[in-house]
Amino acid sequence: MNKIDLLSLSYDEMEELTKELGEQKFRAKQIFKWVNEGVKSFEEMTNISKKMQSTLDERSFITNINIESKLVSKIDGTTKYLFSLGDGNYVEGVTMIYKHGITACISSQVGCAMGCTFCASATGGLVRNLRAGEMIDQILCMQKDQGNRVSNIVLMGSGEPLHNFQEVIKFLNIVNDKNGLNIGNRHITLSTCGLVREIKMLADYQIPINLAISLHAASDEVRKKTMPVANKYSIDQIIEACHYYLERNNRRITFEYALIKDVNDSVNHAKKLASLLSGLLCHVNLIPVNSIDEKDYIKSNNQDIKRFQKELKTNGIEATIRREMGADIDAACGQLRNRHIKNKD
Ligand code: SAH
């Protein structure tokens, strides 16, 4: 029999488990609290009987990921973590310190199947999905290391969250639970490369999180050059899914647009983007593309980025330029893992 990961259980599932074990309902609350506080052994659950501790030990385990290495920015304290998972795989996470607290960027998969050509996480393809508990544990590790509470989460590490749909939904449920990390949905952002079917599925759950769409192009032709997912879904289909989403969740959508020199950064591209997004409750986040070891994309120069932003604004679309954090530890998403794997070989 496969052992159950206690950190991947929602509160309701924990209640079902305790019922199945013939225990009273309040035990679920105790165990749920322990694991979501970061306790890693049953002996530490001091309000649980020895007998129950040993039953739990037979039937279940508690996800335990570790910080393999980290890089800390001397400029602003941004920290990049390389986490080792129980099975020898690695994922990355980042913490950024803002006035309102710590924002944690976490991974949802080991590697990624989406194959975006500018992204370091995609280079080795998808290895496996993370369990909800492995996403929770990234946050627990970061909180412990930082000695402070994480207040905001962005699902922008390695992986495509909507490609690991059920575990991500479960993660959102657990992380929001008042007996657990208790992080408000409005403080959580899920970023997707635009899986249309899953955006609609997510919309139907009506969870008031923030949705970010990695668009990175204003035409299918340009998008196909960097994002293979564009062969499956057109930009029109994505926009239609966004309207569907907004009908169910009246929360402004963010469009991410990584500016790559001479690929997608002209005034015409900006005009086209503005016309695509007109009438949508949204804003655009402009990101100077990070060059990665595997590809030699060049970021647009500051002047062109400002010109792009101005063009969007002139056409009624709000746009911000992403502030660079941790410039001295600059390693684009997925690079820490790639370099670590290479060095081990
Ligand atoms: N799969 C999800 C989330 C992970 S990536 C998605 O596609 O949205 C988080 C964001 O970083 C995405 O917008 C992604 O396109 C962007 N990104 C990846 N590599 C990048 C790079 N080299 N430079 C700038 N942004 C990058």
Describe this structure in words.
The chain is of the alpha/beta class and 345 residues long. The chain has 2 domains: 4-61, DNA polymerase, domain 1 (Orthogonal Bundle), CATH 1.10.150; 66-344, Alpha-Beta Barrel (TIM Barrel), CATH 3.20.20.70. It has 11 helices and 14 strands. It has helices at 11-20, 26-37, 50-59, 132-146, 165-176, 196-205, 220-226, 235-248, 267-277, 302-314, 335-344; strands spanning 4-5, 60-61, 66-72, 79-84, 90-98, 101-105, 109-111, 126-129, 150-155, 188-192, 210-214, 253-259, 282-288, 319-321. It has a 10-stranded mixed beta sheet with strand order 3-4-5-6-9-10-11-12-13-14, with helices on one face. Helix 5 (165-176) links the parallel strand 9 and strand 10 (188-192). Helix 1 (11-20) packs across helix 2 (26-37), helix 4 crosses helix 5 (165-176) and helix 6 (196-205) runs parallel beside helix 8 (235-248). The mean pLDDT is 94. The protein binds S-adenosyl-L-homocysteine. Residues 114, 116, 118-119, 156, 160, 191-193, 214, 256, 258, 287, 289-290, 292, 332-333 line the site of S-adenosyl-L-homocysteine.
